[in-house]
Amino acid sequence: MIAQCCRKLCRMERTVASNGAKPLNTLAVVAIIFFSVAGSPIGIEDAVVAGGPFYALLGLVVMPFVWCIPEAMISAELCTAYPEDAGFVAWVTDAFGETAGYVEGVMSWFSGVTDNAVYPVLIAKYLSTVLHIPDTSSTE
């Protein structure tokens, strides 16, 4: 039922897009992918502190080949197998049923909400460091 609703919403989006809306250009798609996957380079300092600059840079160089490229190839394969806009929900629903598809959709939503809630805090921390604003939060 939830998967059917997602598919109907996707069809509605396609109808809106075909009625005069401009498609995204390459730069916009790259920006959406970067901020959806990585959020931004905010927070990389912890990796540098924990492992040092050599291992942090090594991880940044190796990670695309170990994780990102295989994940991109799997996603491309699934996108060609399921030419729908429902994404993960359609894949999981077809493989494991509607309940699993619903759970996947809800968990992806929660992941997005909690992940996006982290970045304003990190940006505020950066700004307070750059502008020399003292930390007034108490942990008592």
Structural class determined from secondary elements: mainly alpha
- Would you count the extended β strands for me? 0
The 3D shape can be described as extended
Secondary-structure element string: HHHHH
Q: Taking Cα atoms only, what radius of gyration do you get, to the nearest Å?
A: 20 Å
Distance between the termini: 47 Å
Biggest sheet statistics: none
Mean pLDDT: 77
Q: What ranges have pLDDT less than 50 throughout 5 or more consecutive residues?
A: none
How helical, in percent, are the residues?
over 70%
Description:
With 140 residues, the protein is mainly α. It has helices spanning 2-18, 26-37, 45-81, 88-96, 98-130. The chain is extended and about 50 Å long. The termini are far apart. The model has no long low-confidence stretch (mean pLDDT 77).
Output the keywords.
77% helix; 140 residues; mainly alpha; extended
List the helices and strands and how they pair.
Elements: H1 2-18, H2 26-37, H3 45-81, H4 88-96, H5 98-130
Helix pairs in contact: 4-5
Report a brief summary of the structure.
The chain is mainly α and 140 residues long. The protein has helices at 2-18, 26-37, 45-81, 88-96, 98-130.
